């Protein structure tokens, strides 16, 4: 017999985290626990985004109905039926559903005593290295963050842009990280002419690709920019759920998926395969979130081309352990714990 519960957890960021549309100092996650009759516990986490119409309050409001569906079915291995039941009782609310999905997958893999990637039959040697994010700040503080990241061993940096200082920022980052792979995320901040001009400028600094240069609603503008871009384009805010994947196939090179956008691990795997079928490369990103959810995302690494899974690394303190990310590399070979590897750190 399954029993379930959940709690709100407040998490502070190590530094103020600023992107083009907001600054974050503290966030709340919702942690889900699903326990079976033998005392095995699956953990999952939700980190909602107001940008997608979800808050911690909405998660707390719908979570009892989602968990009641899990308890009614009472079979964590019947993920298809549970997924259908959750969609029947609660519309949308993807982060809430993702937390339940993660907890169920953690529990199921623990019941068969395997790390999740092995339960899925994935190859731990086919992994990727996550980027580490340099958020918008003063040039001086961004320089310090860049130097600290390089000295910590991170070889891939994701630089947030969308300001009137974009050239100065990227010039400074390249100066302080001459050998790093640099990716740029504008978080919908540019206009089409501005994007074309800035992407051409970024190419001069050996940027790998540019993420979400325009607002997601600017469909024709995105296609216009994509056809004239000097660099590959990744789309995040434009690629939320499965039906979005074919819609972006003619205006992007890379689909950026997130568990908190799509609603869980089963949907994420469907989106990965759909992206491949449409000739897109795949990146898995995250919100600022604890290892209660990041650990699960890491097990998808063998299916990815790129990863941006530094959400827990941006926290002042994460109450949960997860999959190791030495220098950003997703280390599944070193993951011996059954399930996702997420567990509460000792107090």
Quick rundown:
It is built from 12 helices and 13 strands. The protein has 347 residues and is of the alpha/beta class.
**Topology-level CATH name of the largest domain:** TIM Barrel
**End-to-end separation:** 29 Å
Report Rg.
20 Å
The total domain count is 2
What is the overall shape? globular
Strand count: 13
User: What's the arrangement of strands in the largest beta sheet?
Assistant: 4-5-6-7-8-9-10-11
Which structural class do you get from the secondary structure elements? alpha/beta
Mean pLDDT: 96
The succession of helices and strands, N to C, reads EEEHHHHEHEHEHEHEHEHHEHEEE
CATH class of the largest domain: Alpha Beta
Largest sheet: 8 strands, parallel
Task: Extract low-pLDDT stretches.
Answer: none
Beta-strand proportion = 15-25%
CATH architecture of the largest domain: Alpha-Beta Barrel
Helix % is 25-40%
Corresponding CATH superfamily of the largest domain = Enolase-like C-terminal domain
Layout of helices and strands, plus pairs?
Blueprint (H helix, E strand, L loop, with lengths): L2 E17 L2 E14 L5 E6 L9 H18 L5 H11 L4 H18 L4 H4 L12 E3 L4 H13 L4 E5 L5 H11 L4 E5 L6 H12 L3 E5 L7 H10 L4 E3 L8 H5 L5 E4 L1 H4 L2 H13 L3 E4 L6 H8 L7 E2 L12 E2 L21 E2 L3
